[in-house]
Design goal:
The structure is a single chain. This protein is α+β, with helices and mostly antiparallel strands and 128 residues long. The protein is 32% helix and 36% strand. Strands 1-3-2 form a three-stranded antiparallel β-sheet, with helices on one face. A hairpin with a 5-residue loop joins strand 2 and strand 3. Helix 2 runs antiparallel to helix 3.
């Protein structure tokens, strides 16, 4: 009698995780997300662990969340997971300012971003 269940946004062999309100620009975040696209999750985790970028710590947390979702919620095998999508979106922008010379106002923008990571389990015969 109630509402119908919403369809899943991912396929049966996929899991995803979203991280919102990440403090940093989408451009910088996208460079780190590009580093892990189309890689096996163990290689992607290693790349993020040894990355010098500050935002890589948050990307690694999101990837670990996607892996945990795949294992616990969807029963997928962790060893066969591959990062198929990692995309970045804009979020709000805090506007701050600072007084400048001759009575002017220097605008300071502090952007926030969001990150979505989707992992997929590849079948054993596809990898061979």
């Amino acid at each position: 009698m109630g509402q119908e269940k919403n369809p899943r946004r991912a396929a049966d062999n996929e899991a995803m995780a979203t991280l919102r309100m990440l403090r940093g620009s989408g451009q910088k975040l996208n460079e780190v997300a590009q580093m892990i696209r189309n890689k096996p999750v163990d290689k992607a985790l290693a790349d993020l662990t040894f990355s010098k970028r500050r935002i890589a710590i948050d990307v690694k947390k999101c990837l670990q969340s996607a892996i945990a979702n795949a294992e616990n919620n969807h029963g997928l095998d962790v060893d066969e997971l591959v990062v198929v999508e990692a995309y970045v979106g804009k979020n709000l922008v805090m506007k701050r300012g600072r007084p400048r010379a001759r009575g002017r106002y220097g605008k300071i923008l502090k952007p926030f971003s969001q990150l979505t990571i989707k992992v997929r389990q590849n079948a054993a015969e596809e990898q061979a």
